[in-house]
């Protein structure tokens, strides 16, 4: 699972949660450039968690690359779903603060949708 998050404390919490669920974690990537580097780096993963605002840069480019590769993803952000471009309408969005276990179970489900 690729973790794209610029808040180090939150990223660490997400990584711990994923590892406790026996997920192999790539990242965390705090910038768009590093996220893209992880994607192109060849390490396989089948899902990703993305913060929208990464040090002032939006992660939409990362989401586009992931979707083009068929990778499931969810946004974890302080922004409401209304800020997402329409092309991401079907992507789950969990607003911060969030319950990590809810995000994990949603993302690992085949039809990941927030409750």
From TrEMBL:
Keywords: Phosphoprotein
Keyword Phosphoprotein: yes
Gene3D superfamilies: 3.40.50.2300
Keyword Phosphoprotein included in the entry's annotation: yes
Modified residues (4-aspartylphosphate): 51
PROSITE patterns reported in the protein's UniProt record: RESPONSE_REGULATORY (PS50110)
Family matches, as InterPro entries: CheY-like_superfamily (IPR011006), Sig_transdc_resp-reg_receiver (IPR001789)
Gene Ontology biological-process annotations: phosphorelay signal transduction system
Domain Response regulatory: 1-115
Protein origin, superkingdom: Bacteria
SUPFAM superfamilies found in the cross-reference section: CheY-like
Protein name: CheY-like chemotaxis protein
């Amino acid at each position: 699972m690729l973790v794209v998050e610029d808040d180090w404390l939150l990223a660490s919490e997400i990584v711990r949660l994923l590892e406790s669920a026996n997920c192999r974690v790539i990242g965390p990537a705090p910038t768009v450039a590093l996220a893209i580097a992880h994607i192109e780096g060849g390490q396989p993963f089948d899902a990703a968690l993305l913060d929208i605002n990464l040090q002032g840069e939006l992660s939409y480019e990362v989401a586009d690359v992931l979707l083009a590769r068929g990778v499931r993803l969810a946004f974890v952000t302080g922004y409401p779903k209304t800020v997402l471009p329409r092309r991401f309408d079907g992507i789950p969005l969990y607003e911060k603060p969030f319950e990590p276990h809810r995000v994990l179970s949603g993302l690992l489900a085949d039809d990941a949708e927030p409750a």
